[in-house]
Amino acid sequence: MRAVLLQADVDHRQPVERRVAAVCDQVVAHRGADLVVLPELWATGYFAFDDYERTAQPLDGPTARTLSEAARSAGVLLHAGSVVERAPDGRLYNTSLLFGSAGELLHTYRKVHLFGHQSRETALLSHGDTLLAQDTAVGRLGLAACYDLRFPELFRVLAEDGAEVFVVAAAWPAARIAHWRLLLQARALENQAWVLACNAAGRQGATELGGHSMAVDPRGQVVAEAEAGAAVLEACFDRAEVARARADFPAFSDRRVTADGRTATVRTRRGPSGAPTP
């Protein structure tokens, strides 16, 4: 399977409609790929917090319709990054959209872990509360967004739901790009699954985004990585490699604690501060 990660540096001086049209033109230009992936909140700009309310749209709004048409025109599975979704009850979410090659909306994921450090995401958006993997033509996918990478239990829940490929849309800053690389490899290795991660590039306000979109195989090896600026990263991935990796090193069969603690009770001693002690 061939994935194309569009590491976009969107010109946020342009109207949103023009930004969306320009990126959709890039999607269509990659007709023949199996999967195309976009970054997190690329149309609005993750750090454009004052624009969240203005640019928010329902999932049948003009941005989603344009993305659907791009997926259909290209004949690709499109992970459209994420958009600011306005739900029917008026709440806003950071929502990832997955379109099939006929333009149908296959799956959505509302970001569970919202970022509060030097960010207004938690003040403006609502947390998602659903984690489900999705069967597609390229394998069973689990979706995640940016800050989710710091929470391994999210990926384990998706792995337990059969995810073979994690697709991550992000707006990860350049200042913490070493964490990005480390966490992507860790999430792939510990779950013995592919990770395809598309980061944004360029500057949004005072923040320089890090780029370095990556494809990591189920053994934690980086098979493709972009540089820091706007780029198109292509990577081939084989879903069968997941089963091979898990058969060669069957760590899943040795687990004592599942994501919800079902299989065992693990007791720890606690020191005076309340922290666990060896």
TrEMBL record:
GO MF entries: hydrolase activity
Highest rank taxon of the organism: Bacteria
Family: Belongs to the carbon-nitrogen hydrolase superfamily. NIT1/NIT2 family.
Protein name (record): Nitrilase-related carbon-nitrogen hydrolase
Every CN hydrolase domain range: 1-239
This protein's record includes keyword Hydrolase: yes
Pfam families: CN_hydrolase
Signal peptide start-end: none
Keywords carried by this UniProt record: Hydrolase
InterPro entries reported for this sequence: C-N_Hydrolase, C-N_Hydrolase_sf
